Amino acid sequence: MAQKTAVVIGASGAIGKALVNLHLRHNDHVVAISREILSTSHPHLKKFETDYTKENIEELATRISRIYPAIHSISICNGVLHTDENMPEKRLESFDIDYFGMLMHVNTTIPFMWLQAFMPHLISTQTPCVVTALSARIGSISDNQLGGWYSYRASKAALNMLFKTASIELQRRKCNAKLMLFHPGTTDSALSKPFQSNVPDGKLFKPEFVAEQLNKFQNNREFNGAIDFIDWQGKNIQW
């Protein structure tokens, strides 16, 4: 198997860390970006610390593109659902503007800033590159039959719209890139911890399984100009 270069953003989270380890097992070159630097060491691993400001994101994307002119995948694994003070809203009265703004920034703005920052690379590269952001089925407008979770739903729906719109521009500008939104299912992580007791048997996935599925689908994408919004089974999700 040919050696590839994979960029993993949010590499200190459960899925991001599993993805880093998976690529290293495949002998890929891995660029791991996270707020807290990874303790993992490997000859093929290059680690960067980020504060997720626009200036820092742009600087890192430029440096990485210069070091690795051939990038095969960029996986954006940032995400937040709850804090010590706030849980997903069950009723409209619980809507909190600060919680909403924080979720929009982490779940929507930060992933899109990474896509924006890597745009010069995607325009110029000759290497096909799959750019993936972790989305969620709950961000599907047509799939919303239960209500609730206002802020999280909105942040993922907005992420989906931004990436969908960007895919049209990438196609128009003839970029050698594929955008993908990936719903990992309920993964055993800090994000899902408060809700795991309600998960049906067999539906709480290990991060390693999610990383395997994501990597499999990244390696089998068709570069047809269209964006893919899929789940951990590879099934399409309605917008």
Structure overview:
Helices cover about 35% and strands about 15% of the residues. It has about 240 residues and is an alpha/beta fold. Strand 5 (about 130-135), helix 5 and strand 6 (about 175-185) form a beta-alpha-beta unit. Helix 1 crosses helix 6 and helix 3 (about 95-115) packs parallel to helix 5 (about 150-170). The relative contact order is 0.15.
Features:
oxidoreductase activity, acting on the CH-OH group of donors, NAD or NADP as acceptor; 37% helix; SDR_fam; 239 residues; SDR_enzymes; seven-stranded parallel β-sheet; 17% strand; 6 helices; globular; alpha/beta; NAD(P)-bd_dom_sf; two-stranded parallel ribbon; Rossmann fold; single chain
